[in-house]
## 1
Amino acid sequence: MPATAHASWNKLQQLYESNKDSLTLEQLFAKDPQRFEKLSTEFKGKYTDANVFLDYSKNLVNEDILNALFSLVKEANVEKLRDEMYSGEHINTSEGRAVLHTALRNVSGELNQQEEGVADVPKVLQHMKEFSNAIRDESWKGYTGKPIKNVVNIGIGGSDLGPVMVTEALKHYVKRDIAFHFVSNIDGTHIAEVLKACDPENTLFIVASKTFTTQETITNATTSRDWFLESAKDKKHVAKHFVALSTNTKAVTEFGIDEKNMFQFWDWVGGRYSLWSAIGLSIAIAIGYENFHQLLGGAHDIDLHFKNTPIEQNLPVLMAVLGIWYNDFYGAQTHAILPYDQYMHKFADYFQQGDMESNGKYITKGGQHVDYQTGPIIWGQAGTNGQHAFYQLIHQGTKLIPCDFIFPVETHNPIGDHHRILLSNALAQPEALAFGKDEEQVKKELGAQASNETLVKSKVFPGNKPTNTIVCQKITPATLGALIALYEHKIFVQGAIWDINSFDQMGVELGKVLAKSILPKLHGEGDTKDLSSSTAGLVNYFLSHAK
Ligand SMILES: O=P(O)(O)OC[C@H]1O[C@@H](O)[C@H](O)[C@@H](O)[C@@H]1O
């Protein structure tokens, strides 16, 4: 059912109209000294040390609004849909598939999940364990008997972003005597620069592709195999230097990779939800299998929290409904993710795909065109860098940008006062965004210059900008797993309320198909009559300038 068909949607619209001019964070806090205690909640892992504390008190919500948002969750049957996802029903309706990334990390076995392939998950994990150990303890040797010192993950989208983000976020745990490289872009520069840093005798290529048909990945893998064979000569050596992570056995073996060097996963693992699967092999090699298992465990702990916690204290639900409040009622177009942890500098990039490919849809599951906003534009970067780049617009621009601030209590690198200085910023920004600075205060600070009205106005901060603050003890593998799963389920809840299929990605197809038809034209083959005059003009410009 479209989101607007729920009674609570209308209620929320009314609440928005009646509160939008009067609801201020300043008043909300002034009225209720217990607001922080009431509007914050902590998750602690059952099986791991994962922990996430969420302070959502700096949001433009009162009790009535929160209650209406919770009613929306109930009316949209989010809990039923969640249970259907967990139990393996084919909720990816357009592709007729189950959505079972939770089965990849069901480390306790508490989730009862039925689908072809689920029973094989432990077997693949065991394979990953043995293989990653063999690379790390150097018992796996290259064709000249040397241990592996370069690992190149070749993949794109979900077969790249997860491994890149996690190996960065958990760099503290990464084995430093192996260099990890990630090649995604079809631009030859990407592979060329990586190959310059590698030696064919000690390089392992991990070809990561769910479909094993993705143009970028297959082209980069072919280029790498050619480069490797220039030195190794004999094709039989490929077995020691190329492995594949895929659902497509036929295409993998046709490429020349031995089936026993293939790590399987299944069509019920969406690309952007696949770092928990064989796609995580580079992560397991980098941080060690035990840590990879902790990553899975932390995510599993959030899966259990999402399943078993009442919606009022359910972290993914809270983050989802707050997002909907701004996205659909306040008209916010974007959402910023701002981790105050340098290791997490790729977290927002990762969730650009995670969120935008999941919820960037305008057709409901029933085939109707939505008459409301769906997925926000996700962006962000690690603090404090963002402060010196784009925070100006968040503070004083004309757009409302809800933000998530994320920081760990403990750093992996306690040097001097760095961490407390970092955290003072992570705390100062949401405070400034929420409460701003009024004209009176500015005038007081300006003293004699207060007569300059323009100057006064330009120094006023309107405040009332909503933020969440997410605090973890430390970015350990388990806590990172929990954070990722938290956002995954937030995306799920929003998609469920918007009544869209968060698990297909039809919107990326058209450009791919067109690129295939344009490629021969860039070789001067065929005519350009089927293209617009603009694109045809550009093709001809290219052809007349190409050397
Ligand atoms: O893993 P594959 O099959 O090579 O796909 C890579 C990516 O391909 C993109 O086209 C999809 O939009 C992504 O969802 C996917 O992650």
## 2
Amino acid sequence: MAKSVTGGTKEQSLSWGVFRRFVPYLWPEHEPAIRRRVVLALALVLVAKATTLLMPFAYKAAIDRMAPGLQPGVSLAVALVVAYAAARFGGVLFDNVRNTVFERVGQDATQRLATHVFRHLHDLSLRFHLERRTGAVTKVIERGTKSIDVMLYFLLFNIGPTVIELTAVAVIFWVKFGFGMVAATFLMVATYIVFTRKVTDWRNHLRERMNDLDTGAVAKAVDSLLNYETVKYFSAEDREAARYEKAARAYADAAVRSENSLAWLNIGQSFITNLMMAGAMGYTVWGWSKGRFTPGDVVLVNTLLAQLFRPLDMLGMVYRTIRQGLIDMAAMFELVDQKAEVVDVPSAQPLIVSEGRVKFDNVRFGYEANRPILKGVSFLVPGGKTLAIVGPSGAGKSTIARLLFRFYDVTGGSISIDGQDIGRVQQRTLRENIGIVPQDTVLFNDTIGYNIAYGREGATPEEVEAAARGAAIHDFVAAQPDDYKTQVGERGLKLSGGEKQRVAIARTLLKDPPILILDEATSALDSRTEAEIQRTLRDVSAQRTVIVIAHRLSTIVDADEIVVLNDGRVAERGNHASLLRQNGLYAEMWARQAAEAEMEEA
Ligand SMILES: Nc1ncnc2c1ncn2[C@@H]1O[C@H](COP(=O)(O)OP(=O)(O)OP(=O)(O)O)[C@@H](O)[C@H]1O
């Protein structure tokens, strides 16, 4: 996702845009304690710099005391040397106190930003999540939020103080050694910066490539592990390993090239700074020989420049980190800027369910513009009644459930509940009123108890157990050594399909919604458990509106109405008996399934 940014103005506007966006995290409005820490940290930066600038003067004075021909002043020279050491210590002390004070600010900003992005990701549409690889998205967030902390640190505590120090050194040089020395210093710093920037830009290209390859390798590994079972079915371990190795090797090659390029940067930088050091010290030594400067002045120049070079030594890394940080943060803000596809209209009201009457009126929809899935579907489920939707695979049955949940907006027609268009009510209240037992249940990697209790926030253990009994899973849970604390594994893989389905039923029972969708809810169960659950589901269905999506027609013979969906249209409708009389698609499906059942029994 990381974009390479080229061109000065574009880069500046990008940097400015990103800076503007993270200032509120650094200077949060309702957090006076954080703001106080920022101010204190900045004050400590100034104190530390002042201390470091005093140090070379103490050193110089001590050396001058030792010059031949001067009055011996041993005790003063000792005091000055001690002051020099104290100033050195002071610099380190203040810097570290500053780091301690600022740590909370950086961590706090990172945490707030990460939470903001996380919340936003849940607001984005299903389409976004199906199209993006989860591994790649989490990597973008991880890099983006981490970079805010590092960037703040470098900007405030490296670039800022270096600018202050450079200004102070320039003033001192001007006063003591004349304008030539100032000009030489600025020329050196300018050459240093230009060189560092050029080499770092080149290195950045190498790094970006390395990052892309890293993201690719991680995504491949995640995808491969998520498909663990499929890999085994096809004995494709070697194929998977080869694919991963290829990605990892490409990353390793790019990483070697990127890391080796550092040597060029270090060598060039060292050449520039040491040229300056030699020139400045040579000049002061020459001045001393002419009686214009003292030996202490040589020491002063040496110490001031050595101090100035220390943060400059890190400039390449700082520039690269800030630039990379900007790219990472821009990628993250790009995620934040992703508009949610399904949004509440400004005047959205809460959905109020009275009877639970669900109406699809000439609904048209396609996941992609050029491939319609529903081509004008209409049906009405009166409150408290059960509608079954049947039809061939891929006819659009589950799509109807997704549209009722408003994971997507319809492209034509409308869906309403008790006369309220679902596109005009608050999504949260819409989803609160609908429960679903989906075709493929995915569970949280936590305990069975957690997964059932997910159905209703604040549910008591007794309520969880009652729901589990209702879904015929309690006995299974009770037989586990860890009871409701049994871990279900990633995506619930430690449970069988039927057990997962029963957990899904239990949590929906706990939610107790007025409208219920059962999408092949009992397809993964054996016939004995299915009969047991069917009874429960019938009881549950009695008091609410239910839409049942089913393949096995024997499970829906009692439905008040059955809609046969074919090729995106309602091909037939009626109850079981009337549909059999029509002798159409439904009757054909029924006959086929009856024959299959007979063959199984035989
Ligand atoms: N996210 C998606 N993007 C693009 N096409 C999709 C998406 N989800 C489903 N489809 C397509 O839409 C069509 C209808 O899918 P849907 O899941 O509603 O079928 P279904 O009738 O429930 O089938 P089944 O009985 O096999 O579950 C299918 O052809 C499917 O490939």
## 3
Amino acid sequence: MSAMRVDAKVVMLGKESVGKTSLVERYVHHRFLVGPYQNTIGAAFVAKPIQVGEKVITLGIWDTAGSERYEAMSRIYYRGARAAIVCYGETHRKLPKFKVARSYCVLQHCKIYLCGTKNDLIEGDRSLRQIDYHDAQDFAEEIGAQHFETSSKTGSNVGEFHVAVFVPAEEPGVDLGQKKDSYFYSCCHNN
Ligand SMILES: Nc1nc2c(ncn2[C@@H]2O[C@H](COP(=O)(O)OP(=O)(O)OP(=O)(O)O)[C@@H](O)[C@H]2O)c(=O)[nH]1
């Protein structure tokens, strides 16, 4: 069996139950799974082939476990990543630790994205918001990250199938779709 070629590695990071697996499910399978929460053990990998112009490009997404007991392992998964998506729950208490997020940032060729999750809960009841948008925005600027607020339940800001494309720098002029403000779109682009 030949090994799968991955053109760009993306790694999902963040504390347990902030919604990393749900984001991947939404992005890759266009669904939101309901049912009891099951924590990721170690890490899960999913490949997503995407059409870019005439080419098919494969994104390799590593969904790492948020539990602190797996922290040492997670470092293995983000090595060589092109984009690190650091997630925090908008209804949870804490932003990711600066020190940890910053260490992702300095990885060679690795862009960092700060991704707020579960935005639908706040849309339903604003009092549930625990992380102020502007605080998160300031934090993102501090660590040199782009910031998005998303909902895997509604799909808001996650990026739909046709817009989540990866375009290498040497391939300008490819149709980038219409919605450029979603974070999966953004993290897979060079500009
Ligand atoms: N309402 C709502 N609930 C969400 C959303 N995303 C995730 N959840 C819920 O939050 C819980 C945790 O989601 P996961 O995606 O498993 O979280 P995780 O970050 O992968 O967790 P670990 O595997 O422990 O690292 C689950 O019960 C999800 O259904 C969202 O966008 N909206």
## 4
Amino acid sequence: MTKKRVYEFAKELKLGSKQLMKLLNDLDIDYKSHMSSLSDEAVNKVKDHLKKLEQPQDKQKEANSNKVKSDEEKKKKLQKKNKSKDQRKGKTKGTQQNNAGPRSRKNEIVKAKVEEIEIGESISVQEYAKLLGIEATDVIKKLIGLGVMATLNNEIDAETAQILGAEYGVETKIKEPEKPEELEDIEDKPEELIERPPVVTVMGHVDHGKTSLLDAIREENVTATEAGGITQHIGAYQAQINGRKITFLDTPGHEAFTAMRARGAQATDIAILVVAADDGVMPQTVEAINHAKAAGVPVIVAINKIDKPDSNPDRVKQELTEHGLVSEDWGGETICVPVSAIRKEGLDTLLEMVLLVAEMQEIKANPDRPARGIVIEAELDKGRGPVATMLVLKGTLKVGQPLVAGSIFGKVRAMMDYKGRRIKSAGPSVPVEVLGLSDVPNAGDVFQVMDEKKARAVAGEIQTVKREEELRRSGKISLDELFNSMQAGEIKELNIVIKGDVQGSVEALGQSLERLSTDEVKVNIIHSGVGGISETDVMLATASNGIIIGFNVRPDNNARKAAEKEEIDIHVYRVIYEALDDVKAAMTGLLDPEFKEVVLGQAKVRATFKVPKAGTIAGCYVTDGKVTNSAKVRVIRNGVVVHEGAIDSLRRFKDDAKEVMQGYECGVGLENYNDIKDEDILEFYTFVEVQREL
Ligand SMILES: Nc1nc2c(ncn2[C@@H]2O[C@H](COP(=O)(O)OP(=O)(O)OP(=O)(O)O)[C@@H](O)[C@H]2O)c(=O)[nH]1
């Protein structure tokens, strides 16, 4: 018998080369590429395995023990299988066909007991078979015919189920996916509402002076009015004019505004449109006008830079009329205030106008109810964990209260106002920095205070729905993708999970990576988030046959172990363009051999000591692997890398040590780094040369 090459054998089995190669890996069969020859033994091992998949799992044991079946019988089954596949070749959706499963020995036509079924996003093979009233073995066999390897308990996605249904002449309806439970609002009675400060967003074209205006107002109307006060940057602040307050969202540009609107939440009551008097209405000015119009938010125009000799406020007003904003002094309704952010002129008038518009808008809220509002900014702080700037829109937020923000559960541990002062409660329109969330929510997420049990349950439900949605998008067992890769024998999509230390870089990296998509390979970001790389991230990458990219974060121990087991590639970077370069190179097959990092071990810092001349020494316990005195080291705090460098000294008791194994204590000094803290994790690694692949 001539030896079969991988791709030939794949063809014979009607599988894609990639699929077969994955199977070979699973079965520990050695091969180099799709051109490699396979031994008879390997071929039989694969065939046996496929046959086993056709049997219900509880029968598999039995099958194993009955393994000594005659070769005759084996052949028969295979023939039957190929026959049924040949029949399928000419299949069109909706045709019913003869299907002889291994257990339906008499070639009876397999017919479903129903004409129509309704399923959710996915269904297990067992349940599916039950719904149709068909032997599960028959369903598994059909799935294999379609290139999907699934056992009884595996889930198939809705699309696969539909195509499968068509084979049995059954119409498969898909239930609308459950929407993540809305964070239910409480209705307020009109008599409960009282005035609250207006929330203002500053928008405008690049360089027209948004930041300068926000800074000028902050200096004039926040710090100056209260001697010695220093404003913190928390993404929002409150200014005072004539004893009344105005809340400014301190994120210039309409990104924040649109992100919130995209989540169906609206925090802004009034938009200040900054237009430079020397430049006039520009593309982003028009964009800002359109956003405000779409959101039904009133616009006040700040005609900025009037100090400039070539400023021409009338020209600005003229141009604004073309976009439906007619200045009051020209008989229209739009308030236009000439200002100079640099000279701090016109600011008071601008703020008075904001209050005037606010009065007309009747901006009110009920302070006496569980708080509801919006996340303005959020990040993973190296020392404090998840930190979110939140704007209370209704009710009063108090320390100790449980809440759900987006899909994140939290219990307010501490709150700071925009001056960094600790506060115990925050009423409507008050921006606060909140500690105590279990994870980092997204900017624009709505938050709602509710009782703890409910908050945990709601957050859990929303997360499940979100994860299911992500899994669905990741194309797990999606026929489209399988067929594509089967036909090409190559992967057509590069699925990536991104984790990073701050939302901004995660988003930037995601967008840049997606832009690398070419006609040949599409880059999909199937999940991105802030925080260390976790086991769930690995599971997500496994489900979608993807890779993980970490930016300034590391996998935790469980994640690393899972990644090893599932053979998931994790790549970590500290510079965005390096990540982009690598992915680009992998996509064009141009990766050079590289020195790959190998993690040697981890240690936990239990105490730190200041030693004259040597600096700070970390008293550690080696929790995993080992540490060697030549290793490189990474300091990890709350899943975030805070330092990378070399080891200066490694000691056991008083003596220098070459290496210290898991389970032992040691003292570690780092080169040029003394900021080690208790509870830090030290990760030791080294480099080996390997051929690169992504
Ligand atoms: N002469 C003059 N220059 C101003 C005034 N306001 C801002 N500028 C200048 O205009 C330039 C842009 O100002 P920014 O405040 O950075 O503008 P921005 O709209 O926030 O810009 P982006 O954040 O890049 O969109 C800076 O060089 C400011 O010094 C003003 O009232 N008069």
